[in-house]
Amino acid sequence: MVGPPTARGAETGARLHAVPEWPVKIVAVEALSGGRGREAFYSTVVEAKAEDVLTSMLLHVLECGSDLS
């Protein structure tokens, strides 16, 4: 059985003000119950899927021993 969603997200492309020649992928997520609230992540791999950007960030956090707080 699948429960209600616990988060929602959106993705878009953008360019950073400091380096407008470098496009980036922006992924925004919002916890719908509990969780960390609203967060945004970016990747210089503009072809990446939102799931790939989030997975990459999670793996980075696990490797560095950080908790993203």
Structure description:
The structure is a single chain. The protein is α+β, with helices and mostly antiparallel strands and 69 residues long. The protein has one helix spanning 50-64; strands spanning 7-15, 23-31, 38-43. The protein starts with 6 loop residues before the first strand and ends in a 5-residue tail after the last helix. It has one domain. The longest helix has 15 residues, at 50-64. The protein has 1 helix and 3 strands; from the N terminus they run βββα.
What is the total tally of β strands? 3
Instruction: Estimate the strand proportion.
Output: 25-35%
User: What is the typical, i.e. mean, pLDDT?
Assistant: 88
- Low-pLDDT runs of 5+ residues are none
Put the structure in a nutshell:
The protein has 69 residues and is an alpha+beta fold. It is 22% helix and 35% strand.
